[in-house]
Amino acid sequence: MKEAQIKGAVIDRYNQERSVRKSGDRERIMSEDNSNPAADVEEEDKEFVKLISAEGSEVFVDREIAVAGSETMRAMLEGGFKESEDNTIRFPDISTNILEKVVQYLQYKAKHSNSNARIPEFLIEPEIALELLVAANYLHC
């Protein structure tokens, strides 16, 4: 697969898991079951962190998932750093496709960490394995 196809597949999968829709000044996070209005969660209840890659692309992740899954992000978001005020973290050394894969892993880790069922394999393409390993080491996830 070409990089653009992989990026598109990652974005599609992320959007399937969580559909974000702007509504006036508020964002609403809607569950996959759009027919259930009670499943909607207001932004006040669910905070997101904006992660900015080396290319300037923005990737969003639930704040709770970021804090629980990465020691580096936890330190940035819970410490007295600018990132904790802005809910924005810049990663000038991590490319967009790697940052997206890290977010996928953090979501996978959060979903399966307390599971008693068989945990599915987390697929990593061989061509990004080394760069992903370096990013995971930096992020402590």
Overall description:
With 141 residues, this protein is of the alpha+beta class. Helices cover 45% and strands 18% of the residues. The chain contains 6 helices and 6 strands, in the order H-E-E-E-E-E-H-H-H-E-H-H. The chain has helices at 3-17, 63-69, 71-78, 82-86, 96-112, 129-139; strands at residues 19-23, 26-30, 41-42, 48-52, 58-62, 88-90. It has a 3-stranded antiparallel sheet. Strand 1 and strand 2 (26-30) form a beta hairpin. The protein is globular, with a radius of gyration of 15 Å. 16% of the residues are buried. The model is unreliable at 14-45 (pLDDT under 50).
What value does the Rg take, in angstroms? 15 Å
SS-based class? alpha+beta
Low-confidence stretches: 14-45
Helicity level: 40-55%
Globally, the shape reads: globular
Strand portion? 15-25%
**Strand elements, count:** 6
